[in-house]
Every structure is written in structure tokens, then in C-alpha cells.
Specification:
about 250 residues; Methyltransferase, Cobalt-precorrin-4 Transmethylase, Domain 2; five-stranded mixed β-sheet; about 35% helix; about 25% strand; globular
Length: about 250
């Protein structure tokens, strides 16, 4: 039976990949690599470099997966994402049938960890629910951008005995308030600007673990303009950006 390995490869540093992930890669015959366009070609290249670094003797067949387009500012966000997942499920189903033999193993390399704001597991479940392709799949955990962020800033994720919320920029913009320490991902609009509390601190990082890594921290009101300018310049220079941040109220 076909087998799919969903492998978390860390936030960007090639040494963040785990021994479990390397051993999982040893099983793979085919790499399914998402193609998000020329601006993010570097992400695909880094996946290949990780494989070559740890398994130089192994030759993988590579299948590029053209990620379907979706509306980035929809009126119905949930319905739009569900439709996008359905498109991806149909795409993966066809690619598995075409490029993966019945006794072969395919690998999907996921930035960070497959459990955190990544759609691969949901998409594979949709493929399975279609009942047209028999396969099993396994998930290999990876270091998340949250772990990379807190390590780089040398801070604990939580304050003593306190909870932590993980959310998106879109959600933060909708609430415009900070009820607890909050990690924000997928923020293309600098949603931290919606917070007006003078006691809020921010720990921000982009391209965590990569050679172009940038980290900034301080009182939100004071450093917000610097983060925005730095972020805009980095995105213009590279054509893409992956960033995350922790915002917390100082005690």
C-alpha cells in the first residue's frame, strides 16, 4: 500500500531537522514539493538542500505540486479555505496515483510542524475520505517557528502559571485587544498596530533559522514603526517573508 510521510523540517535552520525526520526520509522514494511560485523558489530549494545534506547518497524522485490560487481577502474566509483544501485534495490524489507506486513511500516536507497552521493533514484526510486511493500516512513532528522565536529571543513562551494564546493576524485585527500572552502567525497586515496598551511588549522574528534571519523586540509602541519598515524592506528584497511574533503585557 502507498505510504505518505508528512515530515516537519523545522522553521528554516537545516540543523533543526530531527533524527526521526532524517530516518523517515530514508523510507521515501518520492518528494512532493509545493511550488508557490517564483518568489518562493528559495523554499523549495532549501527542502532539497536539507535532503542532500543528510542523505547525500540517496536520489529522490521529485514531484512539484503547483499550489492552487485562492482569494486572500475573501468575504467568507472559512468557505474559501475549505474550497481551497478540496482543490488541493484533488491535486494530491491525482499526483499520488500518477507518481507513487502501490508499494512506494512519498514524503511531504512541511515547514515547522505539520500541526501548526498547516493544511497538509486536513488535505490528506480529505483525500482519504474520497475512497478512490488506498494509502496510509504518518506525521513526523518538527520544531515550530514559535520554538525558534522564543529560543532566539532567549525567553520562555509562557509567564509563570499563565496561559498562552496562538492566533492569526486576521483574528487579532478582529479583536484588537490582548487578553493574555499571544503568539501571532500569518500576519500580513501588521495587526499588532491595533493594540494601544502602552505596557505591551513584542518579540518579533522573520526568516527564523535562515541566513537572513531578523529579530527585534521592545515596547510595542516604540518599536512598531521599526518592525514595519524592516518587514517591508525584507519582503521587497526577497519577494516573500515568513514572520511571527509574541506579544505580552509587561508585569
Amino acid at each position: 500500500m502507498r505510504k505518505i510521510l508528512v515530515i516537519g523540517i523545522g522553521a528554516g535552520h537545516p540543523e533543526q531537522i530531527t533524527i526521526q525526520a532524517i530516518n523517515a526520509l530514508k523510507q521515501a522514494d518520492v518528494l512532493f514539493v509545493t511550488d508557490k511560485g517564483p518568489d518562493k523558489e528559495e523554499l523549495a530549494r532549501l527542502r532539497h538542500e536539507i535532503c542532500a545534506r543528510y542523505l547525500p547518497e540517496r536520489e529522490f524522485r521529485t514531484v512539484m505540486v503547483a499550489d492552487p490560487e485562492r482569494d486572500r481577502a475573501p468575504t467568507d474566509y472559512l468557505a474559501t479555505v475549505q474550497a481551497w483544501h478540496e482543490q488541493r485534495a484533488k491535486l494530491y490524489e491525482g499526483l499520488f496515483l500518477q507518481h507513487l507506486g502501490e508499494a512506494e513511500c512519498g514524503a511531504i516536507l512541511v515547514w515547522g510542524d505539520p500541526s501548526l497552521y498547516d493544511s497538509t493533514i486536513r488535505v490528506l484526510e480529505q483525500v482519504a475520505s474520497r475512497n478512490t486511493l488506498a494509502f496510509t500516512y504518518e506525521v513526523i513532528p518538527g520544531i515550530t517557528s514559535i520554538q525558534a522565536l522564543t529560543a532566539r529571543h532567549r525567553i520562555p513562551l509562557n509567564q509563570i502559571g499563565e496561559p498562552v494564546q496562538i492566533t492569526t493576524g486576521r483574528r487579532l485585527l478582529a479583536t484588537q485587544e490582548l487578553t493574555t500572552d499571544t503568539v501571532v502567525l500569518l500576519d500580513g497586515d501588521c495587526a499588532f498596530n491595533s493594540l494601544s496598551d502602552d505596557q505591551v511588549e513584542i518579540y518579533w522574528g522573520a526568516y527564523l533559522g535562515m541566513p537572513d534571519e531578523i529579530v527585534l523586540s521592545g515596547k510595542l509602541r516604540e518599536i512598531s514603526p521599526v518592525i514595519q519598515q524592516t518587514r517591508a524592506a525584507a519582503r521587497q528584497r526577497k519577494g516573500w517573508i515568513m514572520d511571527t511574533y509574541l506579544i505580552r503585557k509587561a508585569h
